[in-house]
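Supplementary Note 3. Input sequence used for the single-chain structure prediction.
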Amino acid sequence: MTATSEPDKADDGSAGIPVSRVLAAARDQLAELAGLRPGSVSGFERTPEGWTVEIEVEEIPRVPETTSVMGLYVVTLDRGGALTGYRRARRYERGRTDP
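The predicted structure, written as discrete structure tokens, is reproduced below.
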């Protein structure tokens, strides 16, 4: 197969980076820059510019845990896995589901 016919071998500078490494880079860089302790990754997507990763963060711990305040952060990375931006997209109580 040629490089253009293999989805993870695209000639866009991101071909050699495994998804697991991209997700770890997003979590690590968000923690370092924002001083947050990232939790789970709830979504990710390859974009023409690089990657978009959604990470859940416990912002205010409470007892019981179901009342802790969570934040959903959208992190953008370039094709090489370097963070280019982040923003909080949503804030919610851990025990609440979307309507």
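The CA atoms of residues 11 and 22 lie 17 Å apart. Residues 19-34 form the longest helix (16 residues).
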